[in-house]
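Throughout our pipeline, every protein is held as a single compact record rather than as scattered files. This encoding replaces a full spatial description with a residue-level series of whole-number codes. The remainder of this section carries one protein's record, kept here as part of the documentation.
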Amino acid sequence: MNDGAPSPQKSTLPGFLGTLDNGIAKVEAVILAAGVLLMAINTVANVVGRFVLGESLHFSEELNRILIVMITFAGLGYAARHGRHIRMSAIYDVFPTTVRRWMMILISFVTSAIMFFLCWYSVSYIYSVYSSGRVLPTLGFPIYLIYLWVPVGLTVTGIQYFMAGIKNIFSRDVYLSTTVLDGYDEQETEI
């Protein structure tokens, strides 16, 4: 695998699925970029406040907590889209392409189902947090708002794995995602 940043790619899925895939990719990119930039600005401002002004920003820790949850769960879909998820493929790699493709279809659909189950479970957790009425001490936001990113990220990830399964059904090659072919770079095979 190439450790560089994945290049933006247009979805190769037909019709509505391709439009959905491209739209989700754009939203993910904006969320991740904005989240990382806001976290960096917030952290630098807190350090400057602490050492120059002698007092930290009181809301900084809570804001970073919100941004970490947002970046983590938006990043799940991004990782699935670019085939950057962790794989243990020692057994998988010994099979011929046809068997690997059917295994990838099964893996994609099972992973998608697990993501949707976790999404459902996270919604019930958010409801219990909502019912408690807890708020962040400094910002005063209801705590359940922080966790709304969890079902969104899990849903997007479930959609990505589902579309990867669809892509593998209609392809002769094996795809890790809708645009990333299964395989290794030359550097990895030499090791």
